[in-house]
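Colleagues,

For the teaching module next term, I've prepared a clean inverse folding example: a structure given as tokens, and then the sequence designed for it. I'd like students to try predicting residues themselves before seeing the answer, so please don't circulate the second half yet.
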């Protein structure tokens, strides 16, 4: 089998509204339904053709592509037929996204917590977050549209808590003309590391007082009234690209997800939507035999989806919530755009896998930041969202809804370096009161200064070295070699 051969299959894709069930052509940029303002999923009306290939052959095909050196098939489009089988080879933008590793918990951490688990390190994507999966798909589709329509300028725009803006700006800069990037950020709610990324990629960065939800309203109005390409997860092409997370996780475990429990931070609900949609595609094609259990995780500072699923099914009504500051910044969303997608897909997921296959757990801010610190002090590179998933796993165990024999796969959506400011605030006990975080000594770690500038100036180099060695040896209680 030639793993370098670009697929010949082309799908017949359309936007499908979850509100009124109307379908619309992909030959026009759509973000919400023109009839009812509902959100879209994308569906392939030729999907039944894919069912003619056995699950075993699909597994072989995707495993063979994993070894290819053809860039267009190395990222999310290794699963081309399941992602966006309407773009051509020359449309695909690849920056090294996807194929992020699943790293088992260190032995001492697994023993300490009494649960087998692993982190999927999506912070090892090019812009250091999972957003690159969706952005690779969205920009490849936009490149196709620009080529076919002869557009000489495409303004891409997004609201962001940090990661979306970094990814959109990076892929826009790489794609070049006719694309220009604008990002809107909540003023003072994005870490300095995160805001540096779109600035470094040359995007126009606009700061707006308020929270993400306020920025999103501005972006939605612009998308409704001007010809701009919206790149938030309201963009259904973003969701398609993020399905690759599910495909990779299944492939990592040799296409056997029995006994697995996937923990996903909810945030704007795009990623948990994509994971469920992707897993159900694999099941429909017999690529996997069993769906894993899904656990969505939300901070108590932004928990509308948790509150919805706490209600009895007959009395459930979705209500947005006012958010409070959260260290898991991507989770600080009170009205998730993709919630209608979640609600629709959960119903289908539970019909396939049965009751108990989907849960949402709520965790405290203290547990989130200490989840990140605990993981990283045991050799991981988890972000605060990864810490949120670890806290969610422990909460699920506490509630008795996660079995000890299950293997938990925790979604660390970004790289820990993006959140070093929160680590510093914890170590220096400088969190503002609204975060409701009180540092514990066992997690704090600060540098020690052992000699002063005056010592350096008054001592000879040899004496300075000897004095430093003596202080370090005493501090560490080192025994001098005989």
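(Answer key — instructors only)
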């Amino acid at each position: 089998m030639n793993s370098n051969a670009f697929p010949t299959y082309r799908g017949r894709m359309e936007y499908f509204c979850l509100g009124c069930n109307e379908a619309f052509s992909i030959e026009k940029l759509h973000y919400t339904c023109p009839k009812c303002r509902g959100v879209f999923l994308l569906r392939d009306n030729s999907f039944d053709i894919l069912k003619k290939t056995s699950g075993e052959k699909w597994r072989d095909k995707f495993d063979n592509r994993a070894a290819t050196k053809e860039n267009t098939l190395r990222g999310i489009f290794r699963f081309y037929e399941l992602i966006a089988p309407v773009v051509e080879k020359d449309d695909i933008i690849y920056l090294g996204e996807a194929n992020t590793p699943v790293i088992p918990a260190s032995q001492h951490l697994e023993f300490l917590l009494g649960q087998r688990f692993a982190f999927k390190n999506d912070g090892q994507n090019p812009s250091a977050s999972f957003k690159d999966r969706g952005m690779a798909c969205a920009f490849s589709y936009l490149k196709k549209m620009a080529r076919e329509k002869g557009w000489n300028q495409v303004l891409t725009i997004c609201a962001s808590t940090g990661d979306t803006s970094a990814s959109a700006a990076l892929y826009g800069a790489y794609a070049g003309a006719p694309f220009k990037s604008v990002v809107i950020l909540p003023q003072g709610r994005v870490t300095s590391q995160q805001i540096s990324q779109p600035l470094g990629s040359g995007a126009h960065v606009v700061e707006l007082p308020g929270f993400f939800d306020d920025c999103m309203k501005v972006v939605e109005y612009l998308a409704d009234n001007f010809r701009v390409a919206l790149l938030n997860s309201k963009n259904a092409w973003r969701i398609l690209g993020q399905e690759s997370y599910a495909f990779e996780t299944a492939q990592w475990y040799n296409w056997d997800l029995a006994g697995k429990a996937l923990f996903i931070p909810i945030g704007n609900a795009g990623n948990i939507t994509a994971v469920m949609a992707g897993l159900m595609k694999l099941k429909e094609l017999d690529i996997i035999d069993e769906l894993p259990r899904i656990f969505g995780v939300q901070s108590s500072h932004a928990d509308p989806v948790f509150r919805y699923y706490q209600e009895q099914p007959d009395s459930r009504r979705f209500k947005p919530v006012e958010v409070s500051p959260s260290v898991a910044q991507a989770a600080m969303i009170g009205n998730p755009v993709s919630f209608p997608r979640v609600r629709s897909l959960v119903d289908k997921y539970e019909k396939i896998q049965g009751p108990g296959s989907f849960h949402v757990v709520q965790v405290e801010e203290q547990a989130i930041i200490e989840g990140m610190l605990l993981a990283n002090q045991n050799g991981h590179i988890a972000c605060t969202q990864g810490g949120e998933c670890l806290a969610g796993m422990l909460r699920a165990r506490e509630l008795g809804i996660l079995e000890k024999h299950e293997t938990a796969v925790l979604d660390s959506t970004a790289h820990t370096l993006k959140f070093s400011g929160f680590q510093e605030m914890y170590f220096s006990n400088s969190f503002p009161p609204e975060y409701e975080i009180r540092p514990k000594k066992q997690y704090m770690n600060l540098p020690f200064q052992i000699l002063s500038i005056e010592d350096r100036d008054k001592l000879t180099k040899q004496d300075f070295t000897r004095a430093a060695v003596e202080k370090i040896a005493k501090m560490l209680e080192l025994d001098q070699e005989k």
